[in-house]
Amino acid sequence: MALKLWASSTANALRISCSSSRPAFPAFSIFRSFSSVIEGLKYTGSHEWVKQEGSVATVGITDHAQGHLGEVVFVELPESGAAVAKGSSFGAVESVKATSDVNSPVSGEVIEINTRLTETPGLINSSPYEDGWMIKVRPSDPSEVKSLMGSKEYTKFCEEEDAH
Amino acid sequence: MVDIVDHYICFLFQLKIHHMRLQRSLGACKFGIINYFDALKLQERLASDRKSGKILDTILSLQHPPTYTLGKRRTDHNLLVSEADLKTMGAELHYTERGGDITFHGPRQAILYPIVSLRDIGCGARNYVEGLESVMIEVASFYGVNAHAGKTGETGVWVGDRKIGAIGVRISSGITSHGLAFNIDPDLSYFKHIVPCGIPDKGVTSLKRETEMELPPDEVIHEQLIHCFAKVFRFSDIQWKTQ
């Protein structure tokens, strides 16, 4: 297991081009526990997930994202009926005095928003893939999800990002 | 036993890569007192340029004329006077997209607006904000002031239960804007007209109030903040530009 860790660290290190290591504070262990990634969902490089069920796509942010944000205290969502575009911001979350835009993995029309997040924004932290879902979209182009990452790819993506 | 050796080898290798990493420069733009709206427009332009890779990570250093600002949550119940009264005082009010509650900016308060890529500095929102806190804590320590980060949910920098530094950040497409405000010696009476950062039972303070040392010109403290920022976020060098 340790040899595999060394080998994967070496591979990651060789791929590092221009990014530096972590800042000098706080001490993040090299061997931090990894965030959960769910099979069957698709993922973006900006850490949103999408679940397709028939003609409805549910969108939220990943466990990796909520861990890096800190406690979410406020969620801004669009209205039902609003249009969203793949790769563009549809709303924001606030944590630790930082608002972070959330991007939509797919284009389409918002058909439902998670109103529970107004009262209980922390659902994004405690249940990022279930109760913390953000919007449901009727996708305008079902082929858009094909270019997104699967769970294995996304797991590797997070590992590489955290190795920076 | 084999595990320990392997971990050690892994650690040594990471150390070597750390030293081999390419240079990461920080562009530092120093201004005098600039109007809040102008600074906002500048940040938007720079953030867009940073996102498209036209510019490197950049930090703006400046001060504002008397200005009250609200964050995305629009908590204007924490503004204790009317907008008309603000005008009489000669202060402006701005609604922004940053995180955080209501705050005041004014002359003699050092403002830093870093426009950086979180991915390139290896941070998420939480540890970026913690880094900003540590920048202010370190500079306060140069003047013998023992400041500390707030408890969970009270982001900012405190001396005892008095707030000396505030943070409000916006992250869009992984690029930061807005940043930190560090009280050197602003007119603290302006804070009487708000519930600062929405926390009613804590006061505000300044470096001038807390230190026993004589303070250098503000420009020196601005430069110290920038140097600490560069150190905390592991930039290899600073490229200074004065406006």
Automatic annotation (TrEMBL), chain A:
GO (cellular component) term, any one: mitochondrion
Family recorded in the similarity comment: Belongs to the GcvH family.
Positions carrying N6-lipoyllysine: 97
Cofactor remark from the record: Binds 1 lipoyl cofactor covalently.
Source organism, top-level taxon: Eukaryota
Mitochondrion as UniProt keyword: yes
Keyword entries, A-Z: Lipoyl, Mitochondrion, Transit peptide
Species the sequence originates in: Musa acuminata subsp. malaccensis (Wild banana)
Function: The H protein shuttles the methylamine group of glycine from the P protein to the T protein.
Localization, UniProt: Mitochondrion
GO biological process: glycine decarboxylation via glycine cleavage system
Assembly and binders: The glycine cleavage system is composed of four proteins: P, T, L and H.
Protein name: Glycine cleavage system H protein
Residues annotated as domain Lipoyl-binding: 56-138
Co-factor requirement: (R)-lipoate
Pfam families the record matches: GCV_H
Automatic annotation (TrEMBL), chain B:
EC number: 2.3.1.181
Residues involved in substrate binding: 98-105, 166-168, 179-181
NCBIfam families per the UniProt record, alphabetical: lipB, PRK14345.1
InterPro entries from the UniProt entry: aa-tRNA-synth_II/BPL/LPL, BPL_LPL_catalytic, Octanoyltransferase
Record has Transit peptide as a keyword: no
CDD domains recorded: LipB
Origin: domain of life: Eukaryota
BPL/LPL catalytic domain ranges (all copies): 53-237
Alphabetical UniProt keywords: Acyltransferase, Transferase
Active site, UniProt feature: 197 (acyl-thioester intermediate)
Gene Ontology CC entries for this record: mitochondrion
Residues the record marks as site: Lowers pKa of active site Cys: 163
UniProt GO BP: protein lipoylation
One Gene Ontology molecular-function label: lipoyl(octanoyl) transferase activity
Protein name (Swiss-Prot/TrEMBL): lipoyl(octanoyl) transferase
Top-level enzyme category: transferase
Pathway given in the UniProt record: Protein modification; protein lipoylation via endogenous pathway; protein N(6)-(lipoyl)lysine from octanoyl-[acyl-carrier-protein]: step 1/2
Family (UniProt): Belongs to the LipB family.
